[in-house]
Write a structure and sequence with these properties.
alpha/beta, Rossmann fold, 3 domains, binds adenosine-5'-diphosphate
Length: 582
C-alpha cells in the first residue's frame, strides 16, 4: 500500500493536468483551505508521502523523533493560536505514541487533531494480522473529544471539516482522524474533488451568555465582602485579554492566575494576589472563576485550602461547558458562554460604577502579599554552594524580566513548583507547563511547538527527570535550528539524587540517575551549544548568550543533589513514601 503511495507522490501528477487527484492531495488541500500551514509528525507507512506532499505544497512539516512530542507540539500550537494543531503519525504504535498527547490535549482543552494512517478495515475487523494492525478509531474514542474515520476520498473534505470544528468549537479538545492507507491512494476526478472540500465557516462561534445569568452573577459579586477573581488557562486561551484586564481593573478585585494564565495580566500587577495565594483562597467569600476548573489543582473547591472553617463560599463561574458547573461544589451563579462574550456582558452590566472591595480586605491581601514577598526575597538572595533551586531560578528570573516576550516551558516536580512561583510572566500565552494532569514529558514537544508557532525565543526550564522523556528532540531542535534554550535542573535524580537502595543491593535507588551527567554534551552531539553552569553567575551568562544568539542551547544547571522534596508539593498524593521512611 505504501509502495503505491510513494509512486503516486514521486510522479506527483499535477492533478489539474491529469484531471484526477488522490487522497494524499485531498488531505493537504483540505488542511490548506482551512488555513492550516504546519504539520507536526513522524513519518513511516503509510503517511510518508503525505508529509512529502505537504512540504511540496508549501506547508511546514516538522519531523520529530517520537510521536508523543509531535503531538504535544501540535497541542501547544492549538493553545497559542485557537486553530487546531495537527499531528501526523503512522499506524498502531505510532498512533498510540501520539495518543498520550491527544489525551493530554483533551484534558487541557487544547484544540488538536491527531491524524494517523491505519491498516485496511477488512483485515483489521477480521483480525487477520495486518502490518501494524489496530482498531485505532475505537482506541482513540475514550481519549478524544471526537474521533472520525474517512473511507472514501470524496469524504476527506467533510472529515477534515468535522475534525476542525470539533477541535475548536465549544470546549476545545483533541480530535482523532483515522485515514486508512487505501483511502490515501484512492483517485478522484479533480473537479469533483475540489467541490468536495469544505472551508469551515465560523469554526468556534461566539456563545453569548443569557442576560439573566449575567445579572445573577453581578448580584452575587456586588454582595461580596472579600471577592476574588481566579483566572484559568481557559481565560488565556480565549484571547479576550483586554476585556479580562478591564474587568479586573474596573472591579478592583484581587485576582489569582492559574499557572498557564500567568501573564494574562502581568504578574507584577498590583491586584495580583499570587503571593498571598493560600490566604485569599481561604479567606475570600465570593470567587469568580474565569476559565478555571475546580479540579485537584484547586483542591476541588473545598476543604482547608478553601477555609472550610470560614463557612461556605459563593462561586460565580464563567465557562463554555455547562457540564463543568457544579462538578465539585455548588455554583451560585453560572455564566455559560465564551469568555470574551461573558466578560463583555459583565462589563456592560457593571456600567460606570462597581462597588469596590472594602479597604479592610484589600489591605489584608496586600499585607500578606508583602510579607510573603519579603520572605521569598530573603530566600532568593542566598547563594548557597552548590546552587539550589532558588538561586538558579533567581538567575533565570532576572534575565527573563528583561525579555517579557520569551516563551517559557516548565515541567518537573520541584523545578515546576518553584519556577511557577518565582518566574514572573508579563504577557499572555507565554507559559506552557505540565497542566491539568501534572504530566511529565511535555518539555521538548511544547518548546518546539512554541518556537515554530511564534518564531520567537523559548526557554524550557526542565527537571532532569522530566527532560528525559523528550530529550531526544534536541536533535529536532538543532535540525530546524530553533531558538530554544533548555535549562536542565540536574540534581542527579527524580526529586533528588541522594536516595539509596533500601535493600542494600548494587542497583541504584529507583529515584537516582547517573551522577554528574553532562546533558549539555547531548546538545553538542547534534551541533547545538552546551553549557555547564554551577553558579548563578554562570547560569546568567549562559542564558544571556543563548538568548542573544537564538541558537539551540542546553544549559546543564548543577543543582545540589540533596535539594528537592519528594513529589515536590504533592507529598499529600504520595502517602506511601512517608510510610516507607519510618
Ligand atoms: P486551569 O488549569 O488553568 O485552572 P482549566 O484547564 O482547568 O484551567 O480550565 C479551563 C476551562 O476553560 C475549561 O473548563 C474550559 O471549558 C474553559 N474554556 C476553554 N476555552 C474557553 C472559552 N473560549 N470560553 C469559555 N470557557 C472556555
Amino acid at each position: 500500500m505504501a509502495e503505491a503511495g510513494i509512486n503516486q507522490a514521486q510522479n506527483s501528477p499535477a492533478p489539474e493536468a491529469q484531471q484526477t487527484t488522490d487522497g494524499f492531495h485531498l488531505v493537504i488541500d483540505a488542511l490548506k483551505l482551512n488555513d492550516i500551514d504546519t504539520i507536526f509528525g513522524l513519518v513511516g507507512i503509510p503517511i510518508t508521502d503525505l508529509a512529502r506532499l505537504a512540504q511540496a505544497e508549501g506547508m511546514r512539516f516538522i519531523g520529530f523523533r517520537h510521536e508523543q512530542n509531535a503531538g504535544n507540539a501540535a497541542a501547544v500550537a492549538g493553545f497559542m493560536t485557537k486553530k487546531p494543531g495537527i499531528c501526523l503519525t503512522v499506524s498502531a504504535p505510532g498512533f498510540l505514541n501520539g495518543l498520550t498527547a491527544l489525551a493530554n490535549a483533551t484534558t487541557n482543552c487544547f484544540p488538536m487533531i491527531l491524524i494517523s494512517g491505519s491498516s485496511e478495515r477488512e483485515i483489521v475487523d477480521l483480525q487477520q494480522g495486518d502490518y501494524e494492525e489496530m482498531d485505532q478509531l475505537n482506541a482513540a474514542k475514550p481519549y478524544a473529544k471526537a474521533a472520525y474515520r474517512v473511507l472514501h476520498a470524496e469524504d476527506i473534505g467533510i472529515g477534515v471539516a468535522r475534525a476542525i470544528r470539533a477541535a475548536v468549537s465549544g470546549r476545545p479538545g483533541g480530535v482523532y482522524l483515522d485515514l486508512p492507507a487505501k483511502l490515501l491512494a484512492q483517485t478522484l476526478d479533480a473537479v469533483r474533488a475540489r467541490q468536495s472540500l469544505v472551508k469551515v465557516i465560523d469554526a468556534a462561534p461566539r456563545q453569548i451568555p443569557a442576560p439573566d445569568s449575567v445579572k445573577r452573577a453581578l448580584d452575587v459579586l456586588k454582595g461580596a465582602k472579600r471577592p476574588l477573581i481566579l483566572l484559568g488557562k481557559g481565560a488565556a486561551y480565549a484571547q479576550a485579554d483586554a476585556q479580562i484586564r478591564a474587568l479586573v481593573e474596573k472591579t478592583g478585585i484581587p485576582y489569582l492566575p492559574m499557572s498557564m494564565a500567568k501573564g494574562l495580566l502581568p504578574d507584577t500587577h498590583e491586584q495580583s494576589a499570587s503571593a498571598a495565594r493560600s490566604f485569599v483562597l481561604a479567606e475570600a467569600d465570593v470567587v469568580l472563576l474565569i476559565g478555571a476548573r475546580l479540579n485537584w489543582l484547586l483542591s476541588h473547591g473545598k476543604g482547608k485550602t478553601w477555609g472550610a472553617a470560614n463557612g461556605p463560599k459563593q462561586f460565580v463561574q464563567i465557562d463554555i461547558a455547562p457540564t463543568e458547573i457544579d462538578s465539585n461544589v455548588a455554583i451560585e451563579a453560572p455564566v455559560i458562554g465564551d469568555i470574551g462574550s461573558c466578560v463583555e456582558a459583565l462589563l456592560e452590566g457593571i456600567g460606570e460604577h462597581f462597588p469596590q472591595p472594602g479597604a479592610e480586605w484589600l489591605e489584608a491581601v496586600a499585607d500578606r502579599k508583602n510579607k510573603n514577598l519579603a520572605k521569598m526575597a530573603a530566600t532568593l538572595d542566598k547563594s548557597p554552594t552548590p546552587m539550589n533551586f532558588h538561586s538558579a531560578l533567581r538567575a533565570i528570573r532576572d534575565v527573563l524580566k528583561t525579555r517579557p516576550d520569551i516563551n517559557v516551558v516548565n515541567e518537573g516536580a520541584n523545578t515546576l513548583d518553584y519556577a511557577r512561583s518565582i518566574i514572573d510572566m508579563y504577557e499572555p500565552r507565554k507559559r506552557f507547563d505540565s497542566g491539568t494532569w501534572g504530566i511529565m514529558g511535555i518539555g521538548m514537544g511544547f518548546a518546539i511547538g512554541a518556537a515554530v508557532t511564534s518564531g520567537t525565543q523559548v526557554v524550557a526550564i526542565e527537571g532532569d527527570s522530566a527532560f528525559g522523556f523528550s530529550g531526544m528532540e534536541l536533535e529536532t531542535i538543532c535540525r530546524y535550528n530553533l531558538p530554544v534554550c533548555t535549562i536542565v535542573f540536574n540534581n542527579n535524580g527524580v526529586y533528588r539524587g541522594t536516595d539509596v537502595n533500601m535493600g542494600g543491593g548494587a542497583d541504584t535507588a529507583p529515584t537516582a540517575f547517573v551522577k554528574n551527567a553532562r546533558y549539555d554534551r547531548m546538545m553538542e552531539a547534534f551541533g547545538g551549544i552546551g553549557h555547564q553552569a554551577s553558579t548563578p553567575e554562570e547560569l546568567t551568562a549562559a542564558l544571556l548568550e543563548a538568548i542573544a544568539s537564538g541558537k539551540p542551547t542546553l544549559i546543564n544547571a548543577v543543582i545540589d543533589e540533596a535539594a528537592g522534596t519528594e513529589s515536590g508539593r504533592l507529598t499529600n498524593l504520595n502517602p506511601q513514601s512517608a510510610a516507607m521512611k519510618k
